[in-house]
Amino acid sequence: MTSTASVRHFLRDDDLTPAEQREVLELGLGFREDRFIRTPLRGPQAVAVIFDKPSTRTRVSFSVGIAELGGYPLVIDAASSQLGRGEPIADTARVLDRQTSAIVWRTFGQERVEEMARVATVPVVNALTDEFHPCQILADLLTVAQLRGGVDSLAGTSLVYLGDGANNMAHSYLLGGVTAGMHVRIGAPAGFLPDPAVVADAERIARDTGGSVLVTTDAVEATRGADVVATDTWVSMGDEASAAERELPFVPYQVNAELMAVAVDDALVLHCLPAYRGKEITAEVIDGPQSAVWDEAENRLHAQKALLTWLLDRS
Ligand code: CP
Ligand code: NVA
Any idea which positions bind L-ornithine (predicted)? Predict the structure, then answer.
């Protein structure tokens, strides 16, 4: 709530260095073990959690997490606030940062969270934009660490993401995955491939961490030997107008038993949810023994508590 030049934000996955991401994940595993291991928001400190788009998991996990950290979640639907009526982002930032300890925001363009962070004197956290969903990837990494031998097990693990390669999840898997030293593969149809600038950033990070990046239109090649198989809806929030065109090109990328057969035998299945059974994933797979999606959803809570604690410690 006080002005500081050193305030840290989390707008993209690569806002954390590999060492910093590891600290957050270790703390997240700590919160999994003991929900009240740290309570940094002493007293009735508020954290603003703003939604320009719908949410179930993000709304619940930030609300519960902020309360468990000892704070007060101030959940604001943009449609019912002046932000939704066009009040400038910078003006909103100046009002919020005098009364809250952090600002968590789900919105449209990445430039909106960047503008909030330029002005705010408290940490700003991206709770999903059109381009990135970095809190989700922290939870996904935590899930792999939880189920596969800790944070050390992440480096060298191969993760394939199948489906819409141009969406927020694909971009965040690229950046967050290579930051953890993973081999990240994107299998997506032509016309739905990741932003080349994000791929270039991921390749640069991978050179330092020992990870790697593969982008291909061949779903089988992408999935062969993968340790983790992830997917997401073919129609992200905001893409509804093109829903009809987002059906046929994606069919070969459906996560089903046939595709799972080319991954390693005990490959983990991740999906950020909400899931559309029969579209991007079959019921057999998401409700089957390799699915880790409920741990993944719970880990939003632990990962975000760790992230907020880490950011508040440094701001
Ligand atoms: N995975 C995720 O962000 O879910 P919500 O849209 O329900 O928050
Ligand atoms: N790509 C999806 C993620 C939902 C959590 C969307 O943006 O709608």
Answer: 168, 232, 236-237
Rama region for 90: left / alpha / beta (φ>0; ψ in -120 to 50; rest):
alpha
- Catalytic residue at 106? yes
55 ligand 2 Cβ < 6 A: no
Say how far apart CA 98 and CA 45 lie, in whole Å: 11
Distance, in Å, from the CA atom of 255 to the CA atom of 197, rounded to the nearest integer, reads 27
Q: Report residue 66 as tokens.
A: 């902020």
Global pTM reads 0.97
Contact indicator for 180, 154 with CB cutoff of 8 Å = yes
Helix (H, G, I), strand (E, B) or coil at 252: helix
Mutate to test the pocket of ligand 2, among 108, 233, 281 (most ligand atoms within 8 A of CB): 233
Tokens of 148: 């596969």
User: Could you read off the pLDDT of 254-283 as tens digits, one per residue?
Assistant: 999 999 999 999 999 999 999 999 999 999
**CA Rg, the chain, in Å?**
19
Q: Express the helix, strand and coil content of the chain in percent, nearest 5 each.
A: 45, 15, 40
10: its two tokens:
């989390």
The span from the CA of 26 to the CA of 18, in Å, is 12
- Quick one: how far is CA 49 from the chain centroid? 16
ipTM of model: 0.99
Cβ of 231 closer than 6 Å to ligand 2, yes or no, is no
99 among the known binding-site residues? no
Element spanning 301, H or E: helix 293-313
Q: Token pair of 278, please?
A: 């029969």
Beta sheet of 124-126, edge-to-edge order: 72-77, 46-51, 102-106, 124-126
Per DSSP, the three-state class of 215 is strand
Q: Is 140 annotated as a binding residue?
A: no
